[in-house]
Amino acid sequence: MFSHIQTKIQKKIQYSLSVLAIASLSLAGLVHAQDTLTIAANPVPHAEILEFVKPQLAKQGVVLKIKVFTDYIQPAVQVNEKHLDGNYYLTQPYLNEFKKSHKNDLQVPLVKVHVEPFAGYSTKYKKLSDLPNGATIAIPNDPANSGRALILLAKQGVLKLKDINNISATKKDIIENPKNLKFKELEAATLPRILGQVDLALINTNYAIEAKLNPLKDSLFIEDANSPYANLLVARDDNKNSPAFKKLAAALNSPEVRKFIQERYKGAVVPAF
Q1: pTM for the whole thing?
Q2: Given this model, what pLDDT does residue 17 score?
Q3: Average pLDDT of each block of 10 consecutive residues along the chain (273 residues)?
Q4: Secretion signal: which residues (predicted)?
Q5: C-alpha distances in angstroms, 69 versus 12, 56, 74, 93, 243?
Q6: C-beta of residue 218 within 8 angstroms of C-beta of residue 13
Q7: Domain covering 31-116+229-271, topology
């Protein structure tokens, strides 16, 4: 009798251990099935949009980690060095310029997500025509955005460039400057902070929004909807085809993200898909 009871107990223990082993394997498989992506982004709107898609990706087995930067250079460098999986903030013109100075650049654009129309702001003047002779204009100091600023000014008629379509234009390409405008080139992120110290500043929309500037209401002039400066989701050549990146790319080009961008930013940021 005792032997029979002992055998039953042993069978129950074996069964319980088997169930635990199967559960452990299933859990291990679930954890293994999850992919982690660490993506660099500027605070607004990039990180906000990534936060919006984060729960959706979690349901698909992708853990999205968002690393926020306030500059344009370091996150691009860290993607090349494989400290980060990718980034979401670069434009194609900026990426082209970055590649010129970083010979081993491995970054590959996957999808366009949105456009942030570039704009000119002033706390001293209400109209661009009020800008006085010798006015000081602050523009970004990175090659892609400085050219973008000069092109936008040329389109407003305040100066003339050798080639208005040259996105790499510099101050040396100005052939007419009737108001003798002076240019101060500064890091893009600092431009909202020095707005009151200059007559006019050309500011990227992500930094303008952070500074509580409304590009549609507060700017003197703004790029039109045909801007080629769409913000991209960027991977490296070695991970561009990963299932996790494909899921992130699809999420960023989804109808839900389109609606989120339109409702949250009300025209200050425009979907590019």
Answers
A1: 0.81
A2: 45
A3: 51 49 42 77 97 98 97 94 97 91 90 96 96 98 93 96 93 97 97 98 95 96 86 97 98 98 94 94
A4: 1-33
A5: 56, 23, 8, 20, 25
A6: no
A7: D-Maltodextrin-Binding Protein; domain 2 (3.40.190)
